[in-house]
Write a structure and sequence with these properties.
The structure holds two protein chains of two kinds. Chain A is mainly beta. Chain A has a domain of 69 residues: OB fold (Dihydrolipoamide Acetyltransferase, E2P), CATH 2.40.50.100. Chain A has two helices and eleven strands. The chains are: A mainly beta, B alpha/beta.
């Protein structure tokens, strides 16, 4: 069962040197890192969208509930992690969503508006408070 | 009643129970390509060596009409036997009886044989083939699991514990194998997971087959939960027997010593390792060139193959080998290979198995995924495991040993007993290319021909540091040796370490970064 023999040797750069070696499947399949975009709201866990709590064009403060996602027998209130304006809503109430499925997109507020509309949110706990 | 009649009654009672879950259930088991529990025990153990106990155990379920059901042996077979003459305790769940489900008597039979193994200080083998908790018995079934886990933990480091997964092993049940030292799986038969595909589908909407979720291949390659992969139950039993031959009965003994043999002529140590540190080779051939009969028994062959672990014999005595594998990912240390090595080192240390480390690595695998997966914490396990080990620890630096990787691979600084290096060993903070780029950055960038300057500086650095003599001059390397002398030096080092005795620190236990 020496599977390694079937694998190809490849150039593996390491600290300025180039090694000839095989890659593991895990290494070859790893996903490259991407920075988080706080304006993109993805489903944190697979589940069902119970209710969408905001409308397009609505300004939301950090901590505002964006939608309720039912998963693992819990109704999770998904809160905004930043202030912004709701740009597009992709999610549909009653629809099952997979993990990392796009639910909605926000856009940044004009700097002035943030100060004007700023209200301290009562509930700043992130994500998984139940209704 | 006469003795004869009484004896006949016993024979009849026995026969009834030995039929297990009945013909229909047995046919179903065979249709899945599986042996029955009793067949498995007999196939694994020495001929006629198995003695069964608690044959007449009866289950304790009273609710949901369970009191009307007869479950022979309560779905588990327990007993003692021998493998190559070594005594062992064994239990095997019988899937033909109520799906091998675990009720309180089933669990009590297992804990009883575990207690026996721990008292007698002999290895424990558990064959798992069970649908899980017996739901009708409610919390008593959960209690049973908990009591098994507790004993697995108490026995850890005292007797070797082997788990053989020959069927489903799901939910809480997986934690008994997870607590044991070695897990054996068979392709298409073994299935291990915490939550199965059904639950995953209903709760999370993700669809996956049992095989893809927790089949033998997954646990051998991806998760590292299993140690030995076999294509058939028969092959699996051969692996168990071989492992038992390499390890001692308990932590107060040494593994059985066999007649010493020379390595096979086919493995010529001088011809295996290319002198260019960037060229790959299979380090397992180096191990085979060193051990008796070139007989190397690899553990976790498919998981993190950038490090190789396993057993061989030197002068008839079992030795644990840990070797960087330049053939895969240039032999780097990473999250998985660190976990793999650290656990192996601790098993060897607990069971008086000397450790030989073969070093040839450029360092730790760079990458966001590695850093975010906690390579700091995982890499620390290797340092911890080597540092705490008190069995004889011998290191041979074959080629490159750069940076943190050099320290981690049982260096003198972690209290290795002997460190040898081959003449082409390069012991340095990093490889010549990387080092030259840093030390001579200015000269290189300001030169008219930076590429030429770079090559020249790499050459300079190589000449100065890319050798074993700087480390040897500080006493970090005990001897620079010819490859052909390696076995000789190792045999001698093992011989003079035989009486090694290091007092353990006065503490309850350390806190290894888990």
């Amino acid at each position: 069962m020496e599977d390694n023999k079937e694998k190809k040797l490849v150039d593996f750069p390491f600290e300025g040197a180039h090694y000839w070696t095989q890659l593991t499947t895990k290494f070859a399949d790893r996903t490259p890192w991407k920075p988080d975009n706080p304006n993109i709201i993805l489903a944190v866990i697979p589940g069902t969208i119970v209710k969408i709590m905001v409308k397009i064009g609505q300004k939301v403060n950090k901590g505002r509930c964006l939608y309720v996602l039912e998963a693992m027998k819990m109704k999770n209130r998904i809160l905004a992690t930043k202030s912004g304006e709701v740009k597009i809503i992709h999610g549909i109430e009653g629809k099952k969503v997979a993990k990392n499925e796009l639910i909605m997109e926000l856009k940044n507020l004009e700097p002035k508006k943030i100060t004007k509309n700023f209200q301290r949110s009562k509930n700043t706990q992130p994500n998984n408070n139940t209704v | 009643m006469s003795l004869k009649r009484k004896t006949r009654e016993l024979v009849e009672r026995r026969e009834q129970i030995l039929r297990g879950g009945g013909e229909k259930a047995i046919l179903k088991q065979q249709a899945l390509g599986k042996m029955t529990a009793r067949e498995r025990i007999i196939a694994l153990l020495d001929e006629d060596s198995f003695q069964e106990y608690d044959l007449f155990a009866r289950h304790e379920g009273r609710d949901f009409d369970m009191d009307k059901k007869n479950l022979p042996g309560d779905g588990v077979i327990t007993g003692t036997g021998k493998i190559y003459g070594s005594p062992i305790c064994i239990f095997a769940q019988d899937f033909t009886v109520a799906g091998g489900s675990l009720g309180s008597m089933h669990a009590r039979k297992i804990t009883k044989i575990m207690d026996h193994a721990l008292k007698m200080k002999v290895p424990l083998i558990g064959i798992n083939d069970s649908g899980g908790a017996r739901v009708q018995e409610g919390v008593n079934s959960l209690a049973g699991y908990g009591e098994i886990f507790y004993r697995n933990t108490l026995a850890s480091g005292i007797i070797p514990q082997l788990s053989v997964i020959l069927g489903p092993c799901a939910g809480g049940a997986v934690y008994s194998p997870a607590l044991t030292d070695f897990v054996f799986v068979v392709d298409k038969i073994s299935k291990m997971f915490i939550t199965g595909p059904e639950v995953i589908k209903t709760v999370l909407g993700e669809e996956i087959s049992m095989e893809e979720l927790g089949g033998a291949r997954v646990h051998c390659e991806k998760t590292g939960n299993a140690h030995f992969y076999a294509e058939s139950e028969k092959e699996c039993f051969e692996q168990i027997k071989t492992l038992i031959s390499f390890i001692p009965w308990n932590n107060k003994q040494k593994a059985r010593v066999l007649r010493p043999r020379n390595p096979k002529n086919a493995f010529k140590i001088d011809n295996i390792v290319p002198s260019d540190p960037k060229q790959p080779y299979d380090v397992r051939h180096v191990i085979r060139a060193l051990v008796d009969g070139s007989d190397f028994f690899e553990v976790q062959e498919l998981f993190a193959p950038n490090i190789v672990i396993g057993y061989g014999r030197m002068n008839g005595q079992t030795v644990g080998f840990i070797a960087n594998q330049p053939l895969v990912l240039a032999g780097v240390l990473d999250v998985d290979s660190s976990d793999k090595a650290a656990r192996f080192i601790r098993f060897c240390d607990a069971f008086n198995i000397p450790i030989i480390t073969l070093v040839d690595l450029p360092g730790y695998l760079p990458g966001v995924d590695q850093e975010h997966a906690g390579v700091i914490r995982h890499g620390a396990k290797v340092l911890y495991a080597y540092s705490e080990a008190t069995v004889p620890k011998i290191t041979v630096i074959l080629r490159k040993a750069y940076g943190g990787g050099y320290i981690a691979m049982n260096s003198r600084h972690l209290n290795a007993d002997f460190v040898f290096a081959w003449p082409m060993a390069e012991i340095a903070v990093m490889g010549p290319e990387g080092a030259a780029n840093i030390i001579f950055r200015k000269e290189i960038s300001e030169s008219d021909d930076p590429e030429k300057m770079r090559r020249q500086k790499i050459k300079e650095y190589k000449a100065k540091f890319a050798n074993p003599y700087v480390a040897a001059s500080r006493g970090y390397v005990d001897a620079v040796i010819e490859p052909g002398e390696t076995r000789h030096f190792l045999l001698h080092a093992l011989e003079v370490s035989e009486t090694k005795n290091v007092p353990l620190p006065d503490r309850k236990h350390g806190s290894i970064p888990l």
